[in-house]
Specification:
single chain, 3-stranded mixed sheet, 45% helix
């Protein structure tokens, strides 16, 4: 098996190739650089590569670059089908103490929302992105709490459609919504929307 075949065999399920896997497979970094210069592979980010002839998921790559970034707000609403408009910026929620300074300069199409660590992992689920990869997003009830809590900072069109769509769902989970609302201290707001829209 030559180095190129070895490289193809160590591509992870998400479609990306990682420098540490390359070194662990006994392939010299010079050979990696050679394939990069020849255009066989493409550098996606520091230590992350893909094969030029493969189509990879940009949302999976984003989460690879920002390990604690969870898709949220309008982005997650779009993934859940509660918004028909993809937001201008991709929303990711991170813990308050997570450093993304190095990413902010490179990822100007991403808006980072900070929350305290105790709320960060509330409602995380795995789903398939529009491009087919496995990603982490907040569940529908968490998204609704986020946009209600931060109504002034949420695009009005995304807010209105998200709220209306959620309360018209047959498979909504009101008990989970109220449980989350208590943690965000927005129970009164939630009850108001429930009263008006149900």
């Amino acid at each position: 098996m030559n180095d190129l075949e070895k490289l193809k065999s160590i591509v992870r399920d998400n479609g990306y190739l990682y420098t540490k896997d390359v070194t662990n497979a006994g392939i010299r970094r010079e050979n990696l650089k050679k394939y990069l210069n020849e255009g066989v592979i493409v550098k996606e980010s520091r230590g992350i590569y893909s094969f030029a002839d493969e189509w990879n998921d940009e949302f999976v790559l984003l989460q690879e670059r920002c390990k604690k970034g969870i898709f949220s707000y309008g982005t997650a609403l779009y993934f859940h089908g509660l918004s028909d408009r993809f937001p201008d910026k991709i929303s990711m929620t991170i813990p308050k103490d997570y450093n993304v300074f190095y990413l902010k300069e490179k990822l100007n199409n991403v808006e980072f929302h900070r929350v305290k660590s105790s709320l960060w992992n509330l409602g995380i689920i795995e789903m398939i992105s529009p491009q087919g990869g496995n990603i982490l997003v907040y569940d529908i009830e968490r998204c609704i709490c986020d946009i209600i809590k931060n109504k002034k900072k949420t695009d009005p069109q995304i807010f209105i459609q998200g709220i209306k769509e959620y309360f018209s769902l047959k498979n909504h989970n009101y008990s989970k919504l109220i449980e989350y609302a208590k943690q965000f201290h927005i129970e009164e707001d939630i009850y108001m929307y429930m009263e008006v829209l149900t």
